[in-house]
Design goal:
Strand content: 15-25%
Oligomer: single chain
Bound molecules: delta-amino valeric acid
Number of strands: 17
Radius of gyration: 19 Å
Distance between the termini: 41 Å
Number of helices: 6
Length: 378
């Protein structure tokens, strides 16, 4: 028998064996930059803080991350953590300068496992340019441990001023509505740009959302890279999401045949076909327990972090402690639901799925979409 693969994950739900959970050490407030305009919740006129986050806030987030680690370990999952990194350091390249970096709470945004391959995303924001660094020791360890591990770093974009469309931030709501089918956001189309969290894995099929953090060149790069390796890459769009960033609060697969969908962010007409033609069920998530106004003060994500669940297996899922309506739905759908408090992590960029990067799930590449009748457009 061959030795088990060290890196092997084909989808979002197979039985989890090894995962990286983020850590809030040394986290900073995300700086204002061309690709990001952070704002204090409900107080748009108060300046967003800069520099390191207060130690108490970091401590609270780390406690909740430790709770997730403990739960995963109690389920037999091997958990790894990122290396320390000084996010208060400014970054200066030939093309840009930014006063500080962000954090290593959300490996999902940076790293993705596609079968036996680890891909480091280009990233889309200046403060996150070097965010792969806290994961490099782990990547080397996996790469050294198993010659079958492939490791790819996507081309780094310049992140120069002309990679961004500054006017995007000024567009009034009516204009966003009128433009909703153009899928033009704060990044232009000239350079290859993607965050890993805009992808969702379904065996040989990979969905990629066009967003504020992933452009069409990014999707083309992923297609050309992955399709010769036997994947099919499907661009997807959610026209009613005017500030899309990362697919895992919008379209969340839970097991073969079942996707949790966001009732406020339907797929572009036609893109649901591949699911319906192949017998998949799309089930809307219930309203989150917090309104957008009630989300934590410095959290830049929407209330739909409620949907950002993490699967331990096709029958076991971890959900944020307060999201009772979603827990009840998952229970009715036949899942064993585990809960952890996680709201102090939200201001670091996400919830349970965002704060993790699965390296190994038990399973192989399957074709969940034998009937594909359209050619995806990029
Ligand atoms: O709906 O605000 C947040 C995802 C963060 N990684 C949302 C998406």
């Amino acid at each position: 028998m061959d030795k088990p693969l060290v890196v092997n994950s084909w989808n979002e739900w197979d039985p989890l064996e090894e995962i990286v959970v983020g850590i809030a050490d040394n986290a900073c407030y995300e700086p204002t930059e061309p690709g990001n305009r952070p704002a204090v919740r409900n107080h748009p006129d108060v300046p967003f803080p800069t520099g390191p986050k207060p130690p108490e806030a970091i401590e609270r987030a780390n406690e909740e991350l430790a709770g997730l680690v403990a739960l995963l370990e109690s389920q037999g999952v091997t958990v790894r953590r990122p290396d320390p990194h000084d996010f208060s350091q400014p970054v200066r390249t030939p093309d840009f300068a930014v006063e500080n970096q962000y954090c290593s709470v959300c490996p999902r945004d940076v790293m993705i496992t596609l079968g036996n391959e680890i891909v480091e995303a280009t990233m889309s924001r200046r403060a996150r340019y070097f965010e792969y660094r806290p994961y490099r020791r782990l990547v080397y360890a996996y790469w050294n441990a198993d010659p079958r591990v492939e490791w790819t770093t996507a081309p780094k974009p310049t992140m120069a001023d002309d990679m961004y469309r500054q006017e995007f931030w000024e567009w009034p709501l009516e204009e966003r509505h009128a433009r909703m089918h153009s899928f033009e956001f704060c990044i232009t189309q000239d350079e290859v740009v993607f965050d890993a969290a805009d992808m969702s894995r379904f065996g040989r099929d990979v969905l990629v959302q066009e967003s504020m953090t992933t452009n069409r060149a990014g999707i083309r790069w992923l297609k050309r890279h992955l399709e010769p390796r036997g994947f099919r890459v499907h661009p997807v769009h959610f026209p009613l999401d005017f500030f899309p960033s990362h697919i895992d609060c919008t379209f969340v697969p839970l097991r073969p045949g079942l996707v949790l969908t966001n009732p406020e962010r339907p797929l572009r007409e036609g893109e649901e076909r591949m699911f319906l033609d192949n017998g998949w069920e799309l089930v809307d998530a219930p309203q989150p327990t917090s309104t957008n106004e009630e989300m934590p003060r410095y959290c830049q994500s929407s209330k739909w972090l409620s949907m950002n669940v993490l699967s331990i297996s096709p029958t076991k899922v971890i959900c944020e402690e307060r999201e009772k309506p979603l827990q009840e739905l998952l229970d009715k759908l036949g899942f064993e639901v585990f809960t952890v408090p996680f709201r102090n992590v939200f201001e670091y960029g996400g919830s349970l799925h965002c704060a993790t990067w699965d390296v190994r799930r038990r399973g192989t590449r399957e074709d969940y979409f034998p009937h594909l009748s359209y050619e995806p457009l990029v």
